[in-house]
Amino acid sequence: MDLENLKQYMLAKPATRLDFPFGADVSVFKVKGKMFALLGARHGEDFINLKCDPEEAVALRDVFSNVTAGYHMDKKHWISVYFREDASATPQGEIERLIDNSFLLVVSKMTKKDQQSILLHI
Length: 122
Prior knowledge:
The chain is an alpha+beta fold. It has a single domain (3-119), classed as Alpha-Beta Complex (Aspartate Aminotransferase, domain 1), CATH 3.90.1150.30. It is 36% helix and 27% strand. The chain has four helices and six strands. A six-stranded antiparallel β-sheet has the order 1-2-3-4-6-5, with helices on one face. A hairpin with a 2-residue loop joins strand 3 (34-42) and strand 4 (45-51). The radius of gyration is 14 Å and the shape is globular. It starts with a helix and ends with a helix. It comes from Shewanella gelidii. This is MmcQ/YjbR family DNA-binding protein. InterPro entries: YjbR, YjbR-like_sf, YjbR/MT2646/Rv2570-like.
């Protein structure tokens, strides 16, 4: 997984900013100040935390060996996707879909005015 391309993919989303509230080695992506993704490393493995529908999160953990409950997050609403190179790892296209879903889940909880200002640019 090319982390730099993944960062650029997230930063291309409307009203998105990169922040480092947990230190220089943890990248937090926010839309209008609300986190939708976190890139970090644990035990030498890069991972991304994403907001996820609880039912979909369970299904993803059943299908992909590199998807777990969100590390240091609400385990019901967040997942961690570890960037492993094995046969059952999550493909890049699926990770991008999960990023899109996380972004939209966060936006869906915003005011109608903020939602409209963001969704006009998608």
